[in-house]
Amino acid sequence: RIARIDAQLETLRIGMGRSRTTLAPLMVVDATVRDIFFCVRTLETKSNWLSFELLHETPVPRPIPPGTIKWQQVHAELDQIIKALDSSVKFLELTEWTTPVREAPKSPEDLYLSVLQASRQLNLLLERETQPQDVYSRVTYALGYSSRMRAQFAKAKMPKTPRLEPEKKPRDVYTLLLACHRIVRRMGASSDIKMISLKVNKDRISQVRPSDVLDVANLIVAEIQLLHGQTKLAQPLPPYDPGKKTPSDVFQRATLLQRHLRGLAESIEASPRRMVIR
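^ thats the sequence. predicted structure below, dont judge the formating
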């Protein structure tokens, strides 16, 4: 399936006269089926955006399956992506590229990176680039989950919004969000919930694009939703349109998220009998 998606993306890339993407700036360890599923969901969202731009169609995403994610559900999502990309190839009347761009993935980590790489290529086919406000909205959503989880600790003191630091770049937000994910992973480990480990490849940090930042923000939301799902707490308000934002605005918001997550992790570790996550 990944080879087919690669072929479709290469066909579209050549037909649309777009450049080939660079390698993802990440190193991955311990990729789970759930992590791969949500990485595929992000790719599906982008394939739907492409369908909207070219065909003015808005495919309805499949609902997220309850309970434990299985490989069959990952395959079903990949099939949806293939279908959407096939529609775009036919609309542009292109002859599909038949040579696989990469080797078939041999491990869950390879598969995760292959999907991530396909997602990066698809970004370059879209007319609308990822905007800082897209990331800001997802970080705010993650903040809503972490705030609700932390609020049940009687002595929890909510952190203040940090000052705005000017001239921040997408790579600064990217590095900060990876640090946030490490805290989320630490909380998962305390409840025997396995999560993917992400580490930036410093040799490729200059290649970070806004869409890479959004991919990490989406992963954080998915992982926090998993932790929140172990509780009986109410859901936070859904994401909203925050208006025009800059990378510095997103960095400020992500710094606040990091402070919330640190406080939540410390509260959980200091109160083993009052674990939020059971």
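The radius of gyration is 19 Å.
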